Structure to design on (356 residues):
């Protein structure tokens, strides 16, 4: 919507400039024109064309600037803004005497030209000086900002915001990830997610009601524990559902979308967003076992096949042990023979070692 409005404004401005610019032409040229109305239409058309091209360039510049602003540290953004403002202030102070000079009409274009060139030159100079020396001033006034300076120098990457899906809040493991320090930066909860949790908490279904209340309780605990680090985004996005609105929020904030929904994570990847599926993360963090490894395993129950026993690793991975049915309730040494990755998780196969 904003991009379309920008193009329309540039198009109208260009057309109006061409249409009204006829009146600014020298009289000796206007005398030679036989069809003044046709000239207005021609110049208006060219102005609209140039306005459209300028609008497209401005859109690209705006999108690039917004991407930089979203990933730029706050201190560096402020220092650059201050440098730009000071540069423009110096430019206009130096321009004041020039603008007051009584110049002939023939060289009247010098004033607007000087204004544009001086503002561009001093504005860019102030911006660049603030980028280089603003860090030195920041180091003097805020000695504890070494991390921000490393981010500004490109040594460290800025922590992107983490956007929580409804499923990951109900899951509950995100709180442990934040406590352990694995998730840095701000944690964003969209208003549509809170509304969905409230609907679940008010549901007549006992299971849904329990999930909704558990999610709201977790958000309350995180708010009390982390304060301003937990941010509620009140932006009302248009979309078919909560997932669609979360994808738009992730695109606008350049954040990391946390979810346990496999389909939502796949859609986010298709849209060039950055999802993090906690279920996949848990699978990747499980300890690897290789054929030939020896494990001390307690046999919990019997397997489906004859002489099979079943045990579990500490992370919950099921281990099917051949020749261990008679050892149910006992701890046996088993030898890993293979592993199988299934949609429900990983399954390890082993063989009971001969008792010594």
């Amino acid at each position: 919507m904003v991009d379309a409005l920008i193009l329309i404004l540039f198009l109208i401005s260009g057309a109006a400039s061409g249409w009204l610019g006829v009146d600014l032409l020298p009289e000796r040229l206007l005398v030679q024109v036989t069809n003044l109305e046709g000239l207005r239409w021609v110049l208006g058309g060219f102005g609209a064309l140039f306005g459209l091209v300028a609008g497209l360039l401005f859109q690209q510049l705006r999108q690039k600037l917004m991407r930089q602003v979203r990933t730029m540290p706050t201190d560096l953004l402020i220092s650059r803004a201050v440098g730009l403002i000071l540069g423009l202030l110096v430019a206009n102070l130096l321009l004041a005497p020039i603008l007051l000079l009584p110049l002939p009409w023939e060289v009247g274009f010098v004033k607007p030209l000087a204004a544009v060139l001086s503002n561009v030159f001093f504005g860019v100079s102030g911006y660049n000086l603030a980028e280089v020396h603003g860090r030195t001033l920041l180091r003097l006034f805020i000695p504890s900002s070494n991390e921000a300076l490393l981010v500004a120098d490109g040594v460290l990457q800025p922590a992107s915001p983490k956007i929580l899906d409804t499923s990951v809040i109900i899951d509950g493991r995100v709180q442990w990830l934040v406590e352990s320090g694995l998730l840095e930066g701000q944690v964003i909860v969209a208003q549509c997610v809170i509304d969905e949790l409230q609907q679940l908490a008010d549901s007549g279904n006992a299971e849904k009601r329990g999930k909704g209340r558990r999610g709201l309780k977790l958000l309350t605990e995180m708010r009390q524990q982390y304060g301003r680090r937990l941010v509620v985004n009140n932006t009302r996005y248009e979309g078919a559902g909560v997932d669609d609105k979360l994808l738009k929020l992730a695109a606008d904030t350049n954040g990391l979308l946390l979810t346990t929904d496999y389909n939502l994570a796949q859609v986010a990847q298709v849209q060039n967003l950055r999802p993090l599926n906690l279920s996949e993360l848990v699978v990747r963090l499980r300890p690897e076992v290789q054929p030939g490894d020896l494990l001390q395993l307690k046999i919990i129950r019997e397997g489906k096949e004859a002489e099979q026993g079943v045990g579990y690793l500490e992370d919950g991975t099921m281990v099917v042990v051949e020749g261990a049915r008679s050892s149910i309730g006992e701890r046996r040494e088993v030898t890993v023979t293979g592993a199988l990755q299934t949609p429900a998780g990983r399954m390890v196969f082993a063989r009971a070692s001969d008792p010594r």
The chain has a mean pLDDT of 78. The radius of gyration is 33 Å. The longest strand covers residues 331-342. The longest helix spans residues 36-71.
